[in-house]
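Hi all, posting the design record for the shared folder.

TITLE: backbone redesign
STEP: 1 of 1
STRUCTURE INPUT:
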């Protein structure tokens, strides 16, 4: 019999395998310039696999071209997901999936409709490469004239992958994307790639399906929630950032509003922003992107459900409703559980961080959330941090990518619920 716990163990071990494989490859002399330590290579592998973008070294200088290719590949696999990637490889010959594979893939794709799993598996892979290819072509129009054919092509491919996968790695050294702060073309292309990666594969699929049918009447309920919530958060965050940082240009504000919940590219100096701005950015990073996307965080659907639940409670409504549909109680419980556990993990990590290296609570909060949410933004020099702090950040990156609930489900013993028991309702004063 297929054990439910296996659903969580396999991805856990899979991501660990990718990290170790990436670590070994990055340590090879042909992949680095000789100045990479064992801990630096491991940190880079964890960050790439968990599509984070935090780094203890300058990957544009400290890793060779082949090393950068390795980083791009493990980023791609980490973004798509280990189970999704392996399932695609195993099913190229269109063999029938076993029960274990079906349940694993269902959990990885967050889809309980077993009949369409193979179809969605192909779509995830297809859309990933098509979007990254289109992104590469658009970037190449600027990078090739600017950096030459060879370097321009590689820059286009690498940054298209890291933007869509919400990894945040770049090849522009310490300046990063700040050199493109006033470049409208690059900003628009990167923003589009980041947002597409953040909304999730199934939202993309649904939008494409509606475009083909020339009708948005039958757009899926999930897509409505994701798109509306994303738009609201994007607009509100942009307005607040502009209010708190009036010296920033509109282009910088729009880019920051997009990247802070997903990728980690930056066209501004995050460290020089006000404390209130850092707190706002921390909150936005924690929210993250959509389910089934390459981004991390609590997920915007969980936030939407929380807001709707609070609203329904304050208005004394029996059901939580959005777009004239009731949200299932089990979904509400899962969303609240996800938010609670995520916030608890961040709080515990902050306490540990302070004990290890106190650099200011606002900075510690920012770094812990950045690691957990797979955003990868940094306001401190990660290389200068103590080894114990780096280990903490790696643990946060791993938990954030695999999922806190998934990891806890491995260790928590589950009992089968006896549905025949009807418990007496107990009253609690609030």
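Okay, here is what came back for every position:
SEQUENCE:
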């Amino acid at each position: 019999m297929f054990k439910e716990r296996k659903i969580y163990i396999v991805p856990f071990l899979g991501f660990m395998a990718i990290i170790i494989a990436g670590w070994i490859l990055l340590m090879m002399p042909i992949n680095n310039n000789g100045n990479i330590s064992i801990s630096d290579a491991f940190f880079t592998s964890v960050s790439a696999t968990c599509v984070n973008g935090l780094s203890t070294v300058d990957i544009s200088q400290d890793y060779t071209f082949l090393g950068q290719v390795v980083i791009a590949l493990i980023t791609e696999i980490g973004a798509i997901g280990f189970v999704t990637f392996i399932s695609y490889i195993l099913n190229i010959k269109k063999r029938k999936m076993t029960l274990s594979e079906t349940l694993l893939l269902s959990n990885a794709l967050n889809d309980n409709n077993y009949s369409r799993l193979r179809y969605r598996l192909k779509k995830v892979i297809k859309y990933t490469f098509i979007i990254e290819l289109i992104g590469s072509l658009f970037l190449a129009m600027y990078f090739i004239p600017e950096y030459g054919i060879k370097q321009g092509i590689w820059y286009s491919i690498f940054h298209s992958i890291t933007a869509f996968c919400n990894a945040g790695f770049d090849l522009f050294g310490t300046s990063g994307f700040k050199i493109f702060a006033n470049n409208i073309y690059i900003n628009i292309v990167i923003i589009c790639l980041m947002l597409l990666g953040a909304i999730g594969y199934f939202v993309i699929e649904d939008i494409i399906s509606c475009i083909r049918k020339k009708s948005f009447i039958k757009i899926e309920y999930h897509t409505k929630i994701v798109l509306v919530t994303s738009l609201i958060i994007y607009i509100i965050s942009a307005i607040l950032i502009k209010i708190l940082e009036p010296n920033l240009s509109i282009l910088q504000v729009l880019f920051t509003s997009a990247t802070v919940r997903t990728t980690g590219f930056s066209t501004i100096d995050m460290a020089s922003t006000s404390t209130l701005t850092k707190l706002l950015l921390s909150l936005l990073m924690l929210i993250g992107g959509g389910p089934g996307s390459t981004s991390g965080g609590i997920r915007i659907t969980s936030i939407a459900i929380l807001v709707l639940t609070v609203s329904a409670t304050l208005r004394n409504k029996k059901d939580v409703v959005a777009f004239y549909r009731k949200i299932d109680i089990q979904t509400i419980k899962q969303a609240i559980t996800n938010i609670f556990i995520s916030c608890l993990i961040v709080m515990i990590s902050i306490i540990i961080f302070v004990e290890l290296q106190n650099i200011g609570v606002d900075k510690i909060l920012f770094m812990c959330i950045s690691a957990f949410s797979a955003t990868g933004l940094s306001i401190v020099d990660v290389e200068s941090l103590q080894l114990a702090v780096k280990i903490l950040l790696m643990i946060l990156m791993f938990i954030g990518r695999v999922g806190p609930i998934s990891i806890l489900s491995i260790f928590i013993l589950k009992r089968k619920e006896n549905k025949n028991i009807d418990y007496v309702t107990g009253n609690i004063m609030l």
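COMMENT: Confidence is low (pLDDT under 50) at residues 86-90, 99-109.
Let me know if anyone wants the other runs.
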